Amino acid sequence: MHYNFKRDLQDGQLAEREAIERLQVHFPEISDFKQSTTKGYDIEAILDGQRITFEVKNDLMAHKTGNVAIEYECRGQSSGLATSTADYWIYKFDNTFFLFKTVLLRQYLFEDKLYFREVTGGDPGSYTKMYLVKVVEFRKWGMELA
User: Fold this and answer.
1) Which residue among 58, 60, 125, 137 is buried most deeply as judged by most CB within 10 Å?
2) pLDDT tens-digit readout, 21-72
3) Domain 5-144 CATH (choose: 3.30.70.100, 3.40.1350.10, 3.40.50.620, 3.40.50.970)
């Protein structure tokens, strides 16, 4: 698959809007959703007077590979799951959305090592490091946002 930043950014922003719609249905107590341009998270909202944040990932290859890819390093620097400040991660794959607590994803991958394997990929020269998790296993870790 050829990397196209502009197209991928548009796909990501659409996934963020779709994620907000699903969150509003599942959690009507969360309000004031806003898409963010900060590096640490994609969406912020208010729950019980407190700010809550979400990172949204749109995995375009999971349906072909049977794996979800979770980035943790890029260009020799920590990135992705390793640096996110989001309270929750939302993964879109196979046109479904799953919600995960960031702290649990970190535990499962960094501490418990519950991934299928580690790979390096991404755009040329990025040497992006990712954990691959089998989709069937990954689904068990989160909550589907139908």
Assistant:
1) 58
2) 999 999 999 999 999 988 899 999 999 999 999 999 999 899 999 999 999 9
3) 3.40.1350.10
